[in-house]
UniProtKB/TrEMBL annotation:
Residues 217-434 form the Histidine kinase domain. It comes from Scleromatobacter humisilvae. It catalyses: ATP + protein L-histidine = ADP + protein N-phospho-L-histidine. This is histidine kinase. CDD domains: HATPase (cd00075), HisKA (cd00082). Its main location: membrane. It is found in: Membrane. The keyword Membrane applies. Residues 157-209 form the HAMP domain. It is a multi-pass membrane protein. It comes from the Bacteria. GO terms for molecular function: ATP binding; phosphorelay sensor kinase activity.
């Protein structure tokens, strides 16, 4: 409707402008034509000796708009058309506008050897006839304008019909319908918009499918620990003695810990998949890694695992974007390394920079566990994937999935390789960051 109204407004403005231009031009041309007639009439009488009586009667016809006046050299009026309105009483050579008898006359005077001839016409008559001629020229344009408006309305309606059909289809869909919108018979100006909407619908469909898959996996993974907790509660309630009850309570506590860790990792994975990375200030990577090691230290002590941190020269001030996401990434890497290393093992953490970019942060974690075969290294980034040869089967299979999601959000790369200690090496490399000059 807005497009149609805009086009009709342009049509009206153009019609008015063209009508005004045509009216003004025809008015001027008609005035010029009337002046030409005055001049030709005066010149045609220039060689007349006397006006015959029959010619005089013809010139006094009331239907004529012209007044003819002839004077001799001595000023005696030889002839003047008889009108009710008084004509000009004096002659002016050439064209002139002379007021007389309460009106303005347009006159043309010419001088011969023995007389002066003047032809006059009332200005109001000239203007009225010029206006009539101009209006007759404008009327066809005004008559065509409504027809053009109808044609424009029909063309706009026909051109926008595919958009109307598209709008009806979108309105008829429910919230779960994410099929692509039809792209046939769309105007070229609208097709890129529909293609962008289809791409957005495809991304939404993929995100919703991943969410449904995640919820299904989470429900499946939570069912087992919750069932185990329920059984352990029943065992504790049926325990015949205090020792059996204490053993059941310890098993129940361990089950609660496992369920708590699983829920925490599920929440961390959900946050890492929630959307684009948030804007955050840069934080030193070494500081975040130390905090992550402090969080994992009690679990490592319980398994007798030694944690080692090596910060390369000049890497203390190397920062990464954000803090919470990177802390989750580092904690999961170190926790995985401790969990899948044998009791009494060693986990080495290195913080440095890329060899080719001094401002590209790198986090590297080595363990002395069983490692991961080359063929399985891509698969372990999927959710709820556990290694059958793991030293500890209490993991949830979410650690590396969380690491991959956080890295993708920050534009970092995760690589798995063999560790010199015999286990697995996980290397996370962030893109190089621009150096900022320190304030003096």
């Amino acid at each position: 409707m807005r497009l149609l109204l805009s086009l009709l407004a342009v049509l009206v403005i153009a019609a008015l402008a063209m009508g005004g231009s045509v009216y003004w031009n025809v008015l001027r041309q008609t005035e010029s034509l009337f002046d030409y007639q005055l001049r030709q009439m005066a010149l045609s009488l220039r060689d007349q000796g006397e006006i015959a009586p029959e010619d005089a009667r013809a010139l006094t016809d009331g239907q004529l708009d012209y007044v003819i006046q002839i004077w001799r050299e001595d000023g005696h009026e030889v002839y003047a058309t008889q009108l009710q309105t008084e004509p000009p009483a004096r002659a002016v050579l050439g064209f002139a506008d002379i007021p007389a008898g309460g009106i303005v006359w347009r006159t043309f005077g010419v001088e011969t050897r023995d007389r002066v001839i003047q032809v006059a016409q009332p200005q109001n008559v000239r203007h009225a006839r010029a206006a009539q001629a101009a209006l007759r020229s404008v009327v066809p344009l005004l008559a065509v304008a409504p027809a053009l408006a109808l044609v424009i309305g029909w063309l706009v309606s026909r051109s926008l019909a595919p958009l109307q059909r598209l709008a009806v289809e979108v309105r008829s869909r429910d919230s779960g319908s994410l099929q692509a919108l039809p792209e046939e018979d769309l105007p070229d100006e609208v097709l890129p918009l529909v293609q962008s909407l289809n791409a957005l619908l495809a991304r939404l469909g993929a995100a919703l499918a991943a969410q449904r898959h995640f919820v299904g996996d989470a429900a499946h993974e939570l069912r087992s620990p919750l069932t185990a907790l329920k059984l352990q509660v029943q065992v504790m309630r049926r325990a015949p003695d205090e020792g059996t009850r204490d053993e059941a309570a310890r098993a129940l506590t361990a089950g609660v810990d496992r369920a708590t860790r699983l829920v925490e990792q599920l929440l961390a994975l959900a946050r890492s998949e929630a959307g684009p990375p948030r804007d955050a200030t840069a934080t030193p990577l070494a500081e975040l890694v130390r905090q992550a090691m402090a969080d994992v230290a009690p679990f490592a002590d319980a398994r007798g695992t030694t944690l080692e941190l090596d910060v390369a020269d000049g890497a203390e001030g190397v920062s990464v974007p954000g803090d919470g996401d990177v802390a989750v990434l580092a904690r999961n890497l170190i926790d995985n390394a401790v969990r899948y290393s044998p009791p009494g093992g060693r986990v080495s953490v290195w913080v440095g920079t890329d060899a080719t970019h001094a401002t590209a942060p790198v986090l590297q974690v080595d363990d002395d566990g069983p490692g991961i075969p080359q063929a399985d290294r891509e698969m372990v980034f999927d959710r709820f994937v556990r290694r059958d040869n793991a030293a500890d089967q209490t993991g949830s299979g979410l650690g590396l999935a969380i690491v991959r999601q956080v890295a993708l959000r920050q534009g970092a790369e995760v690589a798995l390789s063999d560790s010199p200690a015999g286990g697995l090496r996980v290397r996370v490399a962030w893109p190089a960051r621009e150096k900022r000059a320190d304030a003096s």
